[in-house]
Amino acid sequence: MVSVSCAQRRLGERRYKAGGLGRSLCRGWGTRLEDRTPVTHSDLARRIHAASHLTGHFTLRSGRTATEYFDKYRFEGDPVLLDEIARQMAALVPSGTEVLAGLEMGGIPVVTALGRHTGLPCAFVRKQAKPYGTCRLAEGADIEGRRVLVVEDVVTSGGQIMLSTADLRGLDAEVHEALCVIDREQGGADALAAEGIGLLSLLTAGDLRAASA
Fold this sequence. Notes:
With 213 residues, the chain is an alpha/beta fold. The protein contains eight helices and eight strands.
């Protein structure tokens, strides 16, 4: 374990805020996000699986219990891992995309990281418009009349993407594709295709299974 003095920590925090460090002090000194060695697709799958695969006793949304659980917020909460995910996702952004639209809430950290690598403006899409302030459904970048790529973390059935896409189209956004980190391969791609939405994914459930083998 690395021992860090208060003075070192304060210095590190100042350097971090100034852009000198791109990772948490608890992860080590002197390595910026821009300087690390890029990982391969299969390495990335292994890192996501290692970060997010939990064992124990879990109650699922369906009410069933399980001894294994995939906690997607583990990879979303790791700034170095999330940045590598976004770096590889950037190559999948369709040509002509004008705005990246992250869905509440898992899509928000992903779209923010992706915006850093693509330079594209980001919108943050609520499940429903807030009833106060600006009363907007999509915060951030303007989407009206622009080609928008929906960004999500994990896709299972595709239900939320379909609902949010309908809302965005109702606001005159042009939406033809959605991009996710992981496609669970449980029918989401087919369901979205039926609504005129092509699903692009960085990884699939099969990739994660292969990585854990």
